[in-house]
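This section describes the prediction task in plain terms. A model, or a person checking by hand, is given the sequence of a single protein chain and must write out its three-dimensional structure as a string of tokens. No templates, partner chains or ligands are provided. The sample shown here is typical of the held-out split.
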Amino acid sequence: MRALYPVVFLFMSGRGTDQPAEASASSRLFHSLFGRAFEHFAAAAPTVLRANSDEQGFGLADFPTWPAREVASAADLPVAASELLSSGPVLLLPPWRRLEDPRDDISRHEYELVLIDCVPPGPGALLAAVVPAKTMVTRVSERFRKALALHWQPVLVQYTRGGIHGVDRRFETAAVFLRARADGEAPPLRMFKYSADDDESAVLDDFDRLLARQGGRGRFGYVVRDVPKPGETLGFARHDPQLKARRDALSGFGGATTLQEVFETPTPGYDPIESRELLCGADEPGAVRIISGRDIKRDGTIGLPDERTEWALVPLDQQLRVGDIVLQTIIHLTDRPRPCRSRGDQRGSSSGRRL
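The expected answer:
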């Protein structure tokens, strides 16, 4: 039986033609992690493979210490990769382009189609790729992940933001290592995430421990024991064992119910459009303060009145009472909810529909 070696696909978005002779610290860390992954999975240096028609900036000159080979076009990359796998690991640099006229509806990105066309030559083959992080996370790419899973099983997903020279620091990438799918128990999946701002030695040490462990979590990564299903999202937070333990703990609180079955939800006593006639001065007898979203501070307390505070004559049965919980009802996914509890030492108040 032939000895099979890993093939690594590396996709870069920036041209990077002005890359300095010495890579930045973040880029150095990225390549150090790749080198350690090669050592762990293959114990050999790769052959760099790319298409000479590729116009992106990362090319053979960026990896001067590794042997290299160029082919005529991107369509030749899968065949050349399989050929080189028989003698050693391969680092493949295909074009990272969006196709105007894709050949099928699985993907519109050329690098994804190259990945799908790469069929493992045997059960020991290992394939790796650096792709936009959303490729491994979003539902839009689910069909691509399912097609990829026909031949490959993920064994390592490494997320980074700002860790690759020539790629915008705000852009997150995912380095994905895939083992040829085989019968029997699937290998464990290792997840790793770091940024260019993290301490280099701490990242490298934790990465070494991640490669050595068979379970558990470190500072930057963890091992997934329950292998995700084909096509399932591989988001870092999705499979984090610490977050999973918290979700499991929440399930112990019992079944779900509607808010109306737990609390009274009375109609607000003041409407900013329909109740303007109730407005009055702060010193008028019976005046109560109108609490709006801006009045609830981050710590859940109500801020002091200011020049924008409004007062109104609101019926007593529609005013806030001691023990009431005030919640903002218009919340964006990125907002932090700020509940507020009414205290007995606060002057009478009423919430408007803006809450």
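For orientation: The CA atoms of residues 49 and 92 lie 5 Å apart.
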